[in-house]
TrEMBL record:
One of its GO terms (biological process) is thiamine biosynthetic process. Pfam families: Thi4 (PF01946). Its EC number is 2.4.2.60. Its cofactor is Fe cation. Its main location: cytoplasm. It catalyses: [ADP-thiazole synthase]-L-cysteine + glycine + NAD(+) = [ADP-thiazole synthase]-dehydroalanine + ADP-5-ethyl-4-methylthiazole-2-carboxylate + nicotinamide + 3 H2O + 2 H(+). This is Thiamine thiazole synthase. It comes from the Eukaryota. Binds 1 Fe cation per subunit. Substrate binds at A83, E104, A105, G112, V177, D213, H228, M280, R290, M291, G292. InterPro entries: FAD/NAD-bd_sf, Sti35, Thi4_fam. It comes from Bifiguratus adelaidae. Involved in biosynthesis of the thiamine precursor thiazole. Catalyzes the conversion of NAD and glycine to adenosine diphosphate 5-(2-hydroxyethyl)-4-methylthiazole-2-carboxylic acid (ADT), an adenylated thiazole intermediate. The reaction includes an iron-dependent sulfide transfer from a conserved cysteine residue of the protein to a thiazole intermediate. The enzyme can only undergo a single turnover, which suggests it is a suicide enzyme. May have additional roles in adaptation to various stress conditions and in DNA damage tolerance.
Length: 325
């Protein structure tokens, strides 16, 4: 016979259950709603009651409300690595009225910034990009021209917590951008007008299932930070080329920290109407050098993209996610 299923009912010292006559177990069994939660770590910890359907509804109601609401966003940020998160932080704090929606293909946001280079822990940031670290409260050692955060995860977890706490930010992780929406704008010119999404597990299974159509998010501006080429990387840059909107990829060049970092930051821009590209994705589009394990340009490129977006919003009239003037 199988042993009884443990339900966490307080036990006596010899391991036997406290009987249903005990005041605590009586209340749990018969009057769930009257149970007072109690934080008692000596063996009588009591949770407030909950039912399974309450958990399902609490999650699904919010998720689908967000999905409905964000079907029209002001900005979609694709990719929540160090560059995407820096952009989200700057843009959403400077413009709390903008609905900033982040789409991250991975379950865990943060991209390559949970570690430094070669799986080592420390994160190196050249000045003046360290100002963002100071603003969000990430401690570092000052080495003169550059600073060292003792663990890259400290940066990523801090900026992630700041970004996710902002009222105007919603992140859909485990969700991939599969395509771009391209439409004619009010002047009859082609413009990126949003993104095509799917849950990543669906995206990864297109070859094994019959057609599983995607969803869309309409937005006047998409900002892409999907990193350098890889299974999912450089996504928007590659899509621009494949769909004939840009002639060819420049392809990321070999490592040179001194050339790479200013090239990425200073060339972060609206590469096609409605689409800003920054971070390492830009190295694939422009043919810029890589910098390896130095994250300064990712932070500053994210911020540059945010300021570029703010300029676009300041000079445009938007209705229902479309630029109308
Ligand atoms: O999961 C990806 C990662 O979190 C996500 N991503 C990629 N394709 C996506 C898609 N839809 C949604 N189609 C997608 N999300 O984008 C994020 C990219 O993060 P990253 O850390 O790879 O890029 P980054 O540009 O923010 O930072 C690059 C860091 C590097 S790489 C490098 C070198 O190789 O020399 N040096 C630095 C500093």
């Amino acid at each position: 016979m199988s042993p009884p299923v443990l339900d966490g009912t307080p036990q006596t010292h010899d391991g036997s259950r406290i009987t249903s006559k005990s005041p605590i177990s009586n209340v749990i069994v018969s009057k769930q709603h009257l149970v007072e939660p109690k934080e008692d770590f000596s063996g009588n910890y009591v949770f407030a009651p909950i039912r399974e359907w309450e958990v399902s509804r609490a999650m699904s109601q919010r998720y689908f409300k967000d999905l409905y609401d964000r079907a029209i966003s002001d900005v979609v940020i694709v990719g929540a690595g160090s560059a995407g998160l820096s952009c989200a932080y700057r843009l959403a704090t400077e413009a709390p009225h903008l609905k900033v929606t982040i789409i991250e293909a991975n379950v865990a946001p943060g991209g390559g910034c949970w570690l430094g280079g070669q799986l080592l822990s420390a994160m190196i940031v050249r000045k003046p990009a360290h100002k963002l670290l100071m603003e969000i409260g990430v401690p570092f050692e000052d080495e003169g021209n550059y600073v060292v955060v003792k663990h890259a995860a400290l940066f990523t977890s801090t900026i992630l917590s700041k970004v996710l706490a902002l009222d105007n930010v919603k992140m859909f992780n485990a969700t991939a951008v599969e395509d771009l929406i391209v439409k004619e704008d009010h002047q009859g010119k082609q413009r990126i007008a949003g993104v095509v999404t799917n849950w990543t597990l669906v995206s990864l299974n297109h070859d094994t299932q019959s057609c599983m159509d995607p969803n869309t998010i309409t937005a006047p501006l998409v900002i892409s930070f999907t990193g350098h080429d890889g299974p999912m990387g450089a996504f928007c840059a590659k899509r621009l080329v494949k769909s004939g909107l840009v002639p060819q990829l420049g392809d990321m060049r070999c490592l040179d920290m001194s050339r790479a970092e200013p090239a990425i930051v200073n060339r972060t821009r609206e590469v096609y109407p409605g689409l800003i590209i920054g971070g390492m994705e830009l190295s694939e589009l422009d043919g810029a050098n890589r910098m390896g394990p130095c994250f300064s340009a990712m932070l500053a490129s994210g911020e540059k993209a945010a300021y570029t977006a703010l300029d676009i919003f300041n000079n445009s009239k938007i209705e229902n996610g479309e630029i109308i003037a």
